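Morning run. Coffee first, then this:
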Amino acid sequence: MDLMNDAASCPVANPGLASARAGAPLRALLRHATETPHQRLDSHFARMTEAPDASDYHRFIRMSHACHMAIEPVLAQMAQRLDDPLLARRQSLLPMLSQDMRAMGLAPVLMEPLALNRPDLPEAAGLIYVLDGSRLGARFIHREFITKDLTRRWPGITTAYLAGASGPDAFGERMTALSGRVISETARQRALAAAQTAFALFEAAFAWAARNPEAATS
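And here it is:
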């Protein structure tokens, strides 16, 4: 199951990658550089829709909610500070995740705030790649939920986030536009570091939810 389909600020896994592929589209560069954490995250939920109950789905929603809670405010602040229409036009799916959390009585994952040193457009590009890429993965999960009629098999679940992720979104066009603006080697290194930070955040949220499986709020 492909969640993305496509650490405090951690170093780029291959420091020469941005230089070696400076002419590559930014989306392709980020995909290549984050392949390992991407695959590791996908593996946590590979059999989610085959599970006998909704425990893994609850963990998925809790993880996603925590990461959107950490990243969306940072992107919103950058959009306002940079006065950038490209960032401002993004639709946040955090309200849908919050709706699912409330409806299913899920306890929030406790996370540290996202730490990025002086985030700017390159960091926004890296965060958007991961966060909006996860929206693409959620579309595929939503299709499986419909095909397997999981709302009937798992009574009490809600799918506001999955349904919201299935709506139209200009992710490809957004990444193409960012690719034309995040060009220098230094800027691309910063975008890569931000993307790796976002993946590390997802991994930490999953680990916390796995260690604290209690789902319902008191």
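The CA atoms of residues 11 and 193 lie 6 Å apart. Good start to the day.
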